[in-house]
Every structure is written in C-alpha cells, then in structure tokens.
Specification:
The chain is α/β, with parallel strands linked by helices. The chain has two domains: 145 residues, Rossmann fold (3-Layer(aba) Sandwich), CATH 3.40.50; 72 residues, ACT domain (Alpha-Beta Plaits, 2-Layer Sandwich). Helix content is 30%, strand content 26%. The protein contains six helices and 14 strands. Strands 3-2-1-4-7-13-14 form a seven-stranded mixed sheet, with helices on both faces. It has a four-stranded antiparallel sheet with strand order 9-10-8-11. It starts with a helix and ends with a strand. The structure holds ribose-5-phosphate (R5P). The site of ribose-5-phosphate has 18 residues, from helix 4. It catalyses: aldehydo-D-ribose 5-phosphate = D-ribulose 5-phosphate. One of its GO terms (cellular component) is cytosol. One of its GO terms (biological process) is D-ribose metabolic process.
Length: 231
Amino acid sequence: MSKQDNLDIKRVAGVAAAEEVQDGMVVGLGTGSTAHYAILRIGERIRAEGLSVVGIPTSYQSAMRARAAGIRVADLADYPEIDLTIDGADQVDAAFNLIKGGGAAHTREKCVAMASKRIITVVDPSKLSEHLNVPVPVEVVPYAATLVEKQIEALGGRSVLREGVKKDGPVITDNGNFVFDCDFGTIADPAGLEARLNALTGVLTCGIFTEFAEKICVLVGESKGCRTLTR
Ligand SMILES: O=C[C@H](O)[C@H](O)[C@H](O)COP(=O)(O)O
C-alpha cells in the first residue's frame, strides 16, 4: 500500500470517529496521524454546525492542531471527566488491549483515556493483531535510564533508546523524559507486563493499555469505508 493510500484510510477512520462528537461534549484529542483527521473534521463541524465542543489534548501536537482547527482547548485539570476520546494506536489485539506511544505521547494519552467515558480507537488494518507483539514504548525519567534498561532486561525485554529523526540524541517527551522501545516478542500477558513495567523504579508510564477495553470501540479505516469493531 502506498503512503498516500495509508493516509487515505486513516482519514476514513478519523472522519468517521469525528461524526460521533455531539454538541456540548468534552472530547479527548489523541495524538498522531490518524487522530489528526478526527481533529480536522471536528473543527469543520464546529464551523459548519456551530457545535460547542471543548477539546482536551493529549500532547503539544494535538493542542496545536486543535487550535489551528478552531477547537477550544482546555486542560485535563479543568475537565477531569471526558465524554469521548478519539485516539490512534500502534497495535490493537483481539481483546482490545493496545500498544500506544509511537509518537511518545502515551503518558498523557493514558491519563485522558482514564478520564474518558468512551474511547474510539482509530486505526488502519495493519494495526490489528491477535496478540500484542510490537515493541512497547516506555517513558523513563532520564536520571534512571541505565537503571531502567537493566530492569527491563531482567523482565526479558530488549530496550532501545528512541532517538530523534531531526534531532541528535534522545527523543524528549512532552513531560521532559526519555523513551525506550522495549521488545518482548509476543506478549502473553499484557496486563501483567503493563503492571510490571509501570512498577519499575524510574519508569513513568508504559505504552501497554489494558484497562480500557470495556469502553473502547475500534474504527478500522478501509479503502471502501470504515469497519466498527466492538467486543
Ligand atoms: O504516541 C502516539 C500515539 O500513541 C499514537 O496514537 C499512535 O502512535 C498511533 O499513531 P498513528 O495514528 O500516527 O499511527
């Protein structure tokens, strides 16, 4: 599939999710290339339909994109209860466990997910997998980087410090931390691994999301429309 075709199907999912937004809602705004299309469409609907929506961004990227789209943006502290969040994922398994953080935004995304009544996860079909098996992003306090690497090795993972594409040295998250991408192969027990990673000294948050399956609906963009997966 060409890069443009892939963006087109991401747009299908993002736009379909944005149609679920209703007047008066507080909406969590995800990060990444798929959530981007939802943000654009919400902005269009605010202009065309006069919707009143407050957006709670999950990153500097989504805050900037939301403002550019004409969405009023507020802090999670102001709106700790969110009606609906639209966000992407790097992988979704059959039980709706997720791996997130390909854009290093998973800590704020997890906070917003926790605060949300409903979550629409927008993906292209390549993100669906029976089991989680892509590397897990783990946000780490820089001071503890070497300590965390050793702890991840002890858990059976191989960690690689994420480095910038247009920056020399480590990627720095919106929270001022490093990210390790940690390969555990196929993850047999996502909830157990999530708990173990989050408990490591020096770790802020890992990108495994297992707590939200009950409130997640997955929209899969496809060339001929959008497929909805529910549990
Ligand atoms: O940190 C970034 C987020 O978790 C994204 O939602 C995830 O990486 C998916 O991004 P995309 O929609 O660009 O594939």
